[in-house]
Amino acid sequence: MRVLQVSAEIFPLLKTGGLADVAGALPAALAAAGADVRVLLPGFPAILSGVAGLVPVAGLRAPWGEAARLLHGRIPALGQLPAYVLDAPALYDRPGNPYEDAGHRPYADNHRRFALLGWAAAQLARGADPHWAPELVHAHDWHAGLAPAYLAYLPGQPARSVFTIHNLAYQGRFGPDVFTGLGLPSSAFQVNGLEFHGDVSFMKAGLYFADRITTVSPSYAQEIQTPAQGQGLDGLLRGRAGVLDGILNGVDDRVWDPATDTLLPHRYRMPEGRRMAGKALCKASLQHALGLEVRADAPLFVLVSRLTEQKGLHLVLDGLDELIARGGQLALLGSGDAALEDAFRQRAAVAPRRVAATLGYDEALAHRLFAGGDVTLVPSMFEPCGLTQMYGLRYGALPLVHRVGGLADTVTDCTLEDLAEGTANGFVFDDFTARDFGRALRRAFALFARPADWRRVRATGMRRPAGWAEPAQRYIEVYRHAAAR
Ligand code: ADP
Q: Is the CB of 12 inside a 6 Å radius of any atom of ligand 1?
């Protein structure tokens, strides 16, 4: 099956979060499962410079009259993955973050920047490239949300569509005035369409018009059908429950494997019961590099995250005194909300040998944190899938998570019964409160004080199968269902 993946980000060319990791890993896994996969990306500077041999395929004119060129090339960093890139400098040639300006304000023309992405997907389905046209368009998140809408109105439906929600909280919502420029029939702008409380919602367009919907974990697929987590779209999602699947993300072991990871000072694998000298060396090297006390006996908690309200970071700040009092250390890598950045910066300034806060984005340091850490903190209020707890599992830094979304689907608490059964692989708290978070923290300290049990739980986590082969198979089943519709 010819499949076009449409996303705004792709690792390793451009990444702001988990979406990029998925977009970078899924195509190769689908190809290995027999699909003929290409990707479509906006021509941000980092994308244009990461795609080799770009040649023009077609000239496009957006519904509002703007001209763009559709280019085709290959991505050397992803095994020569074939890629279409939208060359429209007036829309995409801006430094930094793909969605917002330096002051963290969304760009005022985001509706056009991402409408063009969906529009171009539909043009490919209509034969814009005489050599290749998708049978199935797989659109990721709101940025690609208009693709299913444009496809639904193409005569003869040349391609089916699948829409994947990576985070329902980011919806791509714009005032009603933008609708006329989008080139969709007026019938699309209604409750049974992309209209959302009088506005245009790109997310809703994806959810309403796609033949099938997926999201990134089974628990999140259920949660988004409830008013509490449906972000106002739970009714629509309940109505479409029959075509909605939750498929847990995989871990790209070309990128995330402590046995082969060249970003680590020492590599290690997991021979059961052994102490993993390589991991201990990674910890010491990390502590040294971050200015923390170099102590093997101090449990090192790591946190790699966008700093937003979603991620539950106030729980970490609330629990930090206790974490330090019990002899722990915290190493954080993150960027985002200015108040959260300040709070962590201040805590690190007060206790520099116990708390390190690196504010910014640093792929290499992220790898070294999972390798050097003992515990990965992911106390998110909600979490569609979450990748950092999976990286923590893979690298032997036991995840401590809130029981929600993909965190609930991947982490099993160290209860006595799960310890006895050998299924425990981390720490899970139920109530999103400082009290419950604190109890999970104390469970982590209690287990750390029992090294043999700690190593056993760590081994369970590291053994967890988590490649992309199985999720890719699930996506192919979804594509088949969409095609058969
Ligand atoms: P989300 O998509 O909500 O940000 P995920 O856990 O799904 O959360 O994915 C986050 C991804 O971004 C992971 O690969 C994580 O390692 C990475 N990441 C987050 N913040 C940073 C940072 N400051 N530096 C490097 N990598 C980061």
A: no
Instruction: Please tell me the distance between residue 481's alpha carbon and the centre of ligand 1 in angstroms.
Output: 31
Do the Cβ atoms of 290 and 356 come closer than 8 Å? yes
Predicted pLDDT at 485: 75
- Whole-number average pLDDT of the chain: 97
Residues of the chain with pLDDT below 50 are 272-273
Q: Distance from the CA of 306 to the center of ligand 1, in angstroms?
A: 6
Is the beta carbon of 312 within 6 A of some atom in ligand 1? no
Ligand 1 atom 26: residue of nearest CA: 363
What is the Rg, in whole angstroms, of the alpha carbon atoms belonging to the chain?
A: 23
pLDDT at 274: 64
Give this prediction's pTM: 0.96
d(Cα 103, Cα 96) in Å, to the nearest integer? 11
Query: Is 252 a pocket residue for ligand 1 (Cβ < 6 Å)?
Result: no
Classify residue 272 by burial, with Cβ atoms within 10 Å: 0-12, 13-18, 19+: exposed
Query: What are the structural domains of the chain?
Result: 2-250+468-483 (3.40.50.2000), 277-463 (3.40.50.2000)
Per-residue model confidence (pLDDT) at position 423: 97
* Ramachandran angles phi, psi of 52, nearest 5°: -95, 155
- Cα–Cα distances in Å, from 297 out to 109, 277, 293, 353, 451? 52, 14, 10, 14, 10
The predicted structure's pLDDT at residue 259: 94
Q: pLDDT by residue (tens digit) across 197-210?
A: 999 999 999 999 99
Best residue among 304, 378, 380, 390 to mutate for probing ligand 1, ranked by most atoms within 8 Å of CB: 304
CA of 115 to the centre of ligand 1 (A): 26
